Each structure stands twice: as structure tokens, then as C-alpha cells.
Give the backbone structure.
Amino acid sequence: MRFEKVVESHHYDRFGELLYILHKNNRKYLNDALAEYDLNLLQAMCMFIMIDRKDISQQELTELLFLTKSGITKAIRKLETDGFIERSRSETDARQYVLNLTQKGMDTIPTLIKIYDEWEELIGLNELDDKFLEILTNLTYKAIDLNKP
């Protein structure tokens, strides 16, 4: 059964169900739009994190994105191969590698922001008030805390 049929045949009244549907459609839209640039959502998320975090380790990325090391490895490898990021030895720990955006990666960021902004505008996220976003952010942090080991 196609996803649209499921949505039409079921009344969604649970917050988790709504978030799941929003997330699935967000991921599909962004992956489709990013494919034009030979990128995917996970790769874009890694790049966004690297804007503000210089010399970030792969381990830090896995923790920030709540993924396994193997989940991040493929994305990082592709970004490096395509010239969006570079990997180098850490100056503080020679056993560890750090990741940084290249100039090509930095030049791509405005395009990624445009794609994200377009999706948010199309579904009306820009119309939400600050209080709703504050509540949603607090709920997100509570959910993270509930799942900490």
C-alpha cells in the first residue's frame, strides 16, 4: 500500500506518528533535492555540523547525529571522495583523524541552506511561533535524555 493511502485511511492522533510521517517526508524531499548535487541528507547534516565545528572527529559526528560509527563512515567517505571535506591527523592526538569542510564544501553550504529553507517554507514551518519551537526543542532533549545509557 502506498504511503498516501495509509495516511488517507488512518486518523493520526499520536504525536509520535505525526513526527514519523513528517520525518519520512522531510527525508524524502531533502534527499530528492540533494541528489541533484550528488549528496544525501546525512551528508548534508554532517556538513552543517562542520560549519561551526572545526577539527571534528568522526566519533563526535556519530554522537551528535545519534548514529553508529559504521552509519557515518559511508557518508564521510563519500564527502571526502567528492571533495566536500578533508580528513587530517589531529594536532592534539596523532591516533585520531579530524574532519573539516573544504572550500568546495563551504561553497556548497548556501545551496544546502536554500534547499532546507525551501522545504520549511513549503510546509509552513516558518509560520510556527517561537513558543511552539521552544516546546518541541524541550521535548526533543527529554527524549534524548530518556534514551541515554
